[in-house]
Every structure is written in C-alpha cells, then in structure tokens.
Amino acid sequence: MRGHENRKSMLKPSVRNRISKIGVELEGGWEKDPGVPVARDGSVQFPGSDAHQNTMPGGRGKMVLSGEVQSTPGDLSEVSAFILKVYPQFVNKTCGLHVHMSFIRRYFYQRLMDPSYQDTMFNTISIWAEEKKFSKSHPIWERLSGKHVTCMREFLADAQVRVGKKRYDHNVPYSRYTAISYPWLQHKTVECRLLPMFEDASDAVEGVLLVADTTNKFLAKQGGRERKHFIDLPVMNNTFVRHYDVNI
Amino acid sequence: MICTLNRTRVGASLHVLVHPDVEDFFRINSNGMTEAVEKWGRCWKSSKPLRVWEFPFNEEANRDFLYTVWAPGMLLMASDEDIDRPVPNISFLRLVGASQDGGITVNIDMLMSRKYIQATAKALSEACGTFYNDFIQDISISISISKATHAGT
C-alpha cells in the first residue's frame, strides 16, 4: 500500500513545470505503417527471420517495418497521445525510448548539467521499476545497471554540448551514449536515454511522465542565485626584479 | 580591477574591468586601431557593439599554447586546430573600454556545468597571470660584475 502511494506521488506533477517542450523517440518494429515516418536505426536489431522470438509479448502479426519514430515537440498530453497512437507492436532489449526536453531558459539547461541529475534519474526510475514489478529479464534492468552500451552511467555534459552533429563514436569524451545526454547544438534538448521500450504503451507513457516530473522536481530544488566566479587579474605596478651575478 | 564569470539565463556572463595600464598596453600596441569582435567570432553578445584593440599575432608568445589573446568572440576555452586540448581564451583583456565606466559585461553563448565553470575561471586566472608576465610586467634587471679571484697555491 505504501509503495503504491509512493508511485502515485512520483507520477503526480507536484512542482511548477519548467520544461518548454518534450518529445520522444520510439524504437521498435511495426506490423503496419504507423502513419508517421519510420527512420532507420542501426541500434534496433531483430535478428533472425522470426521477429516474434526476439520480442517481448505484444507482437502478434508480421513485422513489416523497424527503426525509430519521432514525435514532434509538444506538451506532455500531446506526447502521451502520440505514444499511444503509434506504439510499435514489436520491441526487444535493443529498443530504447528516448525523451528529449527543451527549457524556457538556458539557466535550467545548465542546472541539469550536473552528475547528481543523472543519479536522481537512476534512483527514481529504479524505485518506479521495482514498484511496477518488472520481471528480472526485463530490459529496464540492464539500462539501470549503468553499463548498457547505448546508455552508460557517465557524465560527459561539457563535451556533449559542444558537439555540432550526430556522432556515433563510443568511448570518446563526447560520446552521446550516456543515460543523460546533452545535444545542445543539435537539438537544444536534454535527452534521457534510460527507458527501454515497454511491452505495454501505457507503461511507456508512465515512464515519460516520470522522467518529466523528476526533471521538474530536480530543477525546483536548484533554487538560489548562481555563484560568481572570480578571474584573478595580476596586481599591477609590481616590478619584477631580476639580479644576475657575473664573475669575470 | 575585477573580472567575474557566472551562469545566467542566457548562457554565461563575463564582467570585465581591467586596470587602466592593461588597456593602455593594448592601445599603444595597436596604434589606436580597433576591430569588431564579430569579425572573429559570434559567441560574445552585448547591448553595445563590442570592439577589441588590434593585437598582432605573436608566434613566440603562442608557441606553448598556454593561452590565446587572438580569439575574440569565441568560447572561453577555445579550440585550436593544431592542438588537441582547449586553450584559455583571455582575448577579453583586449576589449575597448574594459578599464572605463565600471567595465564591460559580455554574454557568452556557452553552456557549462558547475564544475566546468569553476575550472574555466581558474584556467583564465592562470592564463592572465602568464600573459601579464609575458607582456606587461615591468622588469628591473640588475647585474653585478665582479672579478674572480683565485687563491694562490
């Protein structure tokens, strides 16, 4: 009962919204054209001829398309409707649910450039996943381990914000494959890559709401004025004396 | 003299107020010639057009790549094609009017984590000190010449 109340409180927006727009990328396979463009995505893999064997329960027909669909940026209700409308019928552990968030002020963006934001997201989603009682084989646990190859628990924000185009390098200081990524120059967004694709679209909606709420709550705690950092300039009129002794 | 750097709702804000001797140094070296910051880079914004004193490139001073004063308008940790690390960009010392009327505030199109802005302020401080030693500091040299004496055997 207590756990149920905790989950309810996590999902109920309790602080002022600081997110300007939110968007999602859904990876998976579809048994028919979802009505929005499906982009190729090399990380999405359904090996073998029978896609069913690689899906969590949910795929029923034959998969005709696989890859990634992207919502247009909007508010939470628009994104939730998009998820429910185009959710793929086939998903497996290679499929991610990526949440992009833009902010009214750069101030908010910079305050999320903090390793403790990523830690908070890991903790909150872990609690939620436990409450949801996802099975031990559910792909969310691999992502929450911090070692998933496209979702590492590393903080590379200051390098990521300076990358001007999509790069596919792993193990580089600007790799985008971190649980929280900062593609500022490309999208002006903070991206949460921690969620997998779920068997049930309603879990996906719940997960996205949780990411948004965790972000707003984190920002709400970051109040106060930004500290000024002093750049020390040398004291002027300070003659440097050098003395040389020369023996001849 | 005061220079501060902090994060703001538009990115980062750099306030520059230098000693009049620093601006005199650049004014004299430029023969009074100035150039628009926009000519070099577009990351610096201000309510008024920003100009810097011209300062001829000095290969000797730049050989160790400890800092740059030749990157106005660019990020505070500037990248250089020839090296694989960002270099403290202290080109803001060249701003025209940096010693007058309370100094100049520049908004910089740059997002930084808390740790990165601390490290940047520290790197800029050290770079300003190095530049001061390289170019501005008065040096008094005294030489004592003495005749060597040898003890007889």
Task: Compose a concise summary of this entry.
The complex is a heterodimer of chains A (248) and B (153). Chain A has helices at 2-11, 76-86, 106-111, 115-132, 139-144, 157-160, 184-187, 201-220; strands spanning 19-30, 65-70, 96-103, 147-148, 151-152, 180-181, 190-196, 229-230, 240-247.
Question: Explain this structure to me?
Answer:
The complex is a heterodimer of chains A (248) and B (153). Chain A is built from eight helices and nine strands. Chain A has helices at residues 2-11, 76-86, 106-111, 115-132, 139-144, 157-160, 184-187, 201-220, and strands at residues 19-30, 65-70, 96-103, 147-148, 151-152, 180-181, 190-196, 229-230, 240-247. In chain A, the strands form two sheets. In chain A, strands 2-1-3-7-6 form a five-stranded antiparallel β-sheet. Chain A has a two-stranded antiparallel sheet with strand order 4-5. The relative contact order of chain A is 0.18. In chain B, a hairpin with an 8-residue loop joins β6 (77-78) and β7. Chain B has one domain (2-136). Chain B has 153 residues and is of the alpha+beta class. Chain B contains three helices and nine strands. Chain B has helices at 20-29, 59-62, 114-136; strands spanning 2-8, 11-17, 34-36, 44-45, 51-53, 77-78, 87-88, 104-108, 139-146. In chain B, the strands form three sheets. A four-stranded antiparallel β-sheet of chain B has the order 1-2-8-4, with helices on one face. A two-stranded antiparallel sheet of chain B has the order 3-5. Chain B is globular and about 75 Å long. Chains A and B meet through α3, β8 and β9 of A and β1, α3 and β9 of B. β8 (229-230) of chain A pairs antiparallel with β1 of chain B, so a sheet runs across the interface.
